[in-house]
Amino acid sequence: MAQKCRRERFSMLYYLSQWILEWSAGTSHEAALSPLRIFRYITFRSAGAAVSALVLSWCLGPIFIQWLKQLKFGQDYQDKAETGGQLHARILSKRGTPTMGGLLIAVVLDLTALLWTQWNALIQLTLLSVVVLCGLGFYDDYAKITEQSGKGTTSLVKLCVQSALGIFIAFYLWSLPSTSSLISEVMVPFYKHPVAVGLTGTVIGIILTTLTIVGSSNAVNLTDGLDGLACGCTTIVAFVFLVLTYVAGNAKTAAYLQIPHVEGAGELTVFCAAIIGAGLGFLWFNCHPAQVFMGDTGSLTLGGVIGIIAVLIHQPLVLVIAGAVFVAEAVSVMIQTGWFKYTKRRYGTGQRVFLMAPLHHHFEKKGWHESRVVTRFYILSVLWAVVALSTLKIR
User: Fold this and answer.
1) Do 311 and 125 form a contact (C-beta atoms < 8 A)?
2) Contact 330, 137 (CB under 8 A)
3) pTM, whole model, 2 decimals?
4) CA 275, CA 53: separation in Å to the nearest integer?
5) Please, are residues 45 and 299 in contact by the beta-carbon 8 Å criterion?
6) Domain boundaries, the chain
7) Helical (H) or strand (E) element with 344
8) Whole-angstrom Cα distance, residue 338 to residue 332?
9) Region of poorest pLDDT, from 25-29, 122-126, 179-183, 368-372
């Protein structure tokens, strides 16, 4: 046990509780301190992580918001629609609202993971992704603020960093005997056997891993256009993966449901709980009317991390179902952009499929109030979350 504790020394509360138990063994304090064994249970640590992340967000939120205001990290530039260059008029009333609130989410996730998770390769990859994507988002937001434009860094830079992260994670997982099957065996929802293995599976797995991380990160980024929309939908998706990671980490349950068992995935359950707590805590300040925006600092991070967790439990395609709202937002932009360019090249005048893209702006243009759009997207997110969870039994 002592060796195990030293190996997992980064789990602060777990390590401390086990050290106390070992110290008290055979003493008069043993019985009184025996309740500390509860720290060994993933369910308890998940609950602790969710509550800790929520409380930390509540406590640090006002401090972060005031700090961002003092640094003048506000959105004073004109934010334009993703296609057609149309001005999003509603944003004018929110100019000056602090952005880069994603820093709060990243800090809370890191602190919570330090307190409650037992570090393993899966947790380390996830936290590495938080740092990399948060840095990329911060760079993009800072460029927008300093230039006072909605441009920020180029799409090429974003794609290069995200792709490099995805490829690194894919090759790292493939290189380890204990995790190589996450890449070399391709799983699809509603089917219990791999659809591709060996060299073919490895090539598809590397591509699928990269696309999952890049696509999820950018899809959540595109969804982040209304108060509380991206944060709330991400929290709902995180609940889906809280269940999936717990099942994947439990050998008996995974065998019963005939899904891939991933050793150590239970710690990702604790991290998903932290995402839920941090998401709800940030939503406290981000709901309409928003006191702070998460910016690319938060949306790129949350989207990428959800994608990485899906890869780490061998369920990347389930994310397409659970995150159907994000998929719809991204697809609407691709359709709008593609059709506009095609019609402009063919007819000389660009035409649009939607009134505005991403999709949530289309419904705003149709006269839906911002809160109505957000609430209805929440309902759709819950619906697709239930469908995603059904993949556990329908195979």
Assistant:
1) no
2) no
3) 0.91
4) 8
5) no
6) 1-40, 42-390
7) helix 324-347
8) 10
9) 25-29
